[in-house]
């Protein structure tokens, strides 16, 4: 496996532009500005990452970017349960079907909103984007740890945004060292995709997300 090192994907910052300290801002606002400038300096991508970011953001640059980030827990569960899932076969599944109640199991991850409905959430994002920019006057980017979420969001909002939905392609997972069943190449691809998602999300004019941490 390959552990995540930020400097494998971003440039070593040469300088961070801090506020002028002219007194035009409050001390609190000045500290916030300094923090933003420092984070910006720390996240300038290396060429390989920049090329992937440019491939996503290169089209219709005159239009604002509306971005969605949804963490479902899917990447965590697929890794955590791999040892169990790999043992499933027809016999095991048939026995489970006979002994378990015929209903969906309770969800493992919760948004803390009992009546949460994803299409309704997407409709709200659409309405906000239309109010700000107009129908088909914005680009749409979606990032998620679950590939199906990207497909569902893109399909549900199709015709509302300009062109095609934008997203990273390839392996999706998390970057901490607990995932030890990956090859070095797989870890590298996952880490690069995470950084690309982060860079693109940071460019959004309107960002909508479910409670989460990144990545």
Walk me through this protein's architecture.
There is one protein chain. By secondary structure, the chain is mainly α. Helix content is 43%, strand content 7%. The chain has eight helices and three strands, in the order ααβααααβααβ. A three-stranded parallel sheet has the order 2-1-3, sandwiched between helices. The chain is globular.
Topology:
Layout: H1 27-42, H2 47-57, E1 65-70, H3 74-80, H4 82-85, H5 90-99, H6 118-133, E2 139-144, H7 147-156, H8 184-202, E3 206-209
Parallel strand pairs: 1-2, 1-3
Short description, anyone?
The protein has 215 residues and is mainly alpha-helical. The protein has helices at residues 27-42, 47-57, 74-80, 82-85, 90-99, 118-133, 147-156, 184-202, and strands at 65-70, 139-144, 206-209. α2 packs across α8.
Distance between the termini: 18 Å
Q: State which percent range the strand residues make up.
A: 5-15%
Q: What ranges have pLDDT less than 50 throughout 5 or more consecutive residues?
A: 95-113
Largest sheet: 3 strands, parallel
Q: Spatial order of the strands in the main sheet?
A: 2-1-3
Query: How many β-strand stretches?
Result: 3
Task: State the share of residues found in helices, binned by percent.
Answer: 40-55%
Order of helices and strands: HHEHHHHEHHE
Category from helices, strands and their pairing = mainly alpha
- For the residues shown, what is the average pLDDT? 77
Radius of gyration: 21 Å
- Which geometry do the CA atoms define? globular
Tally of separate helices: 8
């Amino acid at each position: 496996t390959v552990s995540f090192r930020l400097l494998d994907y971003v440039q070593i910052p040469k300088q961070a532009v801090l506020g002028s300290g002219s007194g035009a801002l409050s001390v609190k606002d000045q500290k916030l500005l300094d923090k933003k400038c420092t984070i910006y300096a720390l996240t300038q991508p290396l060429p390989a990452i920049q090329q992937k970011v440019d491939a996503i953001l290169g089209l219709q640059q005159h239009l604002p970017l509306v971005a969605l980030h949804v963490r479902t827990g899917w990447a965590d569960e697929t890794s955590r349960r791999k040892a169990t899932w790999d043992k499933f076969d027809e016999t095991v599944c048939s026995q489970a079907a006979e002994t378990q109640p015929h209903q969906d199991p309770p969800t493992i991850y919760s948004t803390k909103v009992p009546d949460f409905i994803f299409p309704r959430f997407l409709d709200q994002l659409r309405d906000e984007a239309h109010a700000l920019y107009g129908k088909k006057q914005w680009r749409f980017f979606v990032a998620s740890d679950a590939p199906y979420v990207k497909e569902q969001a893109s399909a549900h909002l199709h015709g509302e945004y300009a062109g095609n939905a934008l997203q990273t392609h390839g392996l999706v997972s998390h970057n901490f060292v607990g995932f030890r069943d990956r090859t070095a190449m797989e870890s590298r691809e996952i880490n690069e995709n995470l950084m690309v998602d982060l860079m693109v999300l940071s460019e959004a004019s309107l960002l909508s997300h479910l409670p989460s941490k990144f990545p």
